Model the fold of this input.
Amino acid sequence: MILKQTTRRRFLTSVGAVGGFAAASLAMPYYARGSSSRPVFTSGVQSGDVDAASGVVWTRVDRPSRLFIEYSTTDKFANAVRLAPFDVTPETDLAGKLLVTGLPPDQEIFYRFVAADLQDINSRSEPIRGEFRTAPVSRRNLRFVWSGDTAGQGWGIDDKGMRTYRTIAYHRPDFMIHSGDTIYADNPIPDEIALRGGGVWKNRIVTEEKRTIAQTLPEFRGQWKYNLLDEHVTALNAICPVFHQWDDHEVLNNWSPSTDLSADDRYKEKSVAVLAVRASRAFHEMTPIRYIAAEPGRIYRKVSYGPLLDVFFVDLRSYRGPNTHGLDEELTPQSRIFGEAQVAWLKRELARSTATWKVISCDLPIGLVIWDDYGKRRGSESISNGDNGAPLGRELEFADLLRFIRDAAIGNIVWLTADVHYTAAHYYDPGRAKFQDFLPFWEFVSGPLHSGTYGPQELDGTFGPEVRFIKAAPGGIESNLPPSAGMQFFGLVDIDGESEQMTVRLMDRDDNELWRTVIDPQRVS
Done:
């Protein structure tokens, strides 16, 4: 197999050239800025949802400004294309993003922003720049990564920062998938945390918004701005598109229509629906996710990345019923987790896909039993209900999807997820399952990026999962290990342009390869 190689020199040169200004501009927290006579970029740049002809670019400034943007196919910006300027105001917390269209396929795109103060239009910032590569229209080697779970359990930006992001950047992926829990709106960041074995974890940067749980729109926005104070995060964003989805902690832990905050003294706002609306607005303002006019605020979508790969992002949070026992014998709107419209979309788009590989990026694992209330082991938070039997509750909806995939002979589907704060490889085999009307498939789990590491979850046998690899914290008293324990994980995927083989590697933040497998594409008839 021929894999795309990246030398350390190329990596350091790229980060220095592209991300240098972004890192330099983040030398102090954003709330300490504002004395400059010219606009200042506060959070670096981002790109996302890149395909063969377009991509979204994003930035944020410290005052109401007019943003000028241009792009080129060279880092010298020869023959740069200048786009129409647009304004950012407090209405979007001074953040702005733009869908850039008409791009050439399989091409390095270099872009830069300049901001002009709306109070003094001739007062202009220094430029800030980024880059990404558009998807190919012919077969070539592809590389991408995935992970999830950033700045959870109080583990914030210490002296080393969010180092997993730097390790990912070293591999120069075509793009990164952030599989959810992109922020922890319900996890305050303290100044320091006493470590179980002695010593103290010190959060070098703590902002006012991160000292408390998020309830208001400014507080939700502040969760995102905190992550963007980390130099490793902004350096990766400057050279690598990030494709975003969300899970529960963008709002609060395990939220669903059954969430009851009446006895939670931390929350003045008791409506989880109101909190979700504010969280969703902040999510879309602060990430380079595409706007879908047919359903503003929608997260599920497909990104086509050439003839070898389609990526399907699903949303198991926004359309679910309540987190109940999960034992309903009939599928109803209350027992769904995808929701009827999303399932119909996913079936339709999978059937239409002509890409060799169909990667489904899911914000929750399939066969792991995740309780809504761990202490009492009750309430189904994810798909599986823990009874190891025939499909019931949310499993009915997933079984219907798997049966459709089998009947439509849709091959080469791989599921990627995070959420549980460890890394694992699961193989789903109908020969081992209570429900057997499906094609075998892989599910790979990897995370956290920068959060506590936890012990393994139990598997439900309904869909026949088998653990082929796992690395996790021991569990029990050895739960919620800090990032300094080294058990921060991501997955690295390579697709060979000639053989079409997919190689999946599970990695840690020190760039150790923990496990790998090579999957041959299958022809299903």
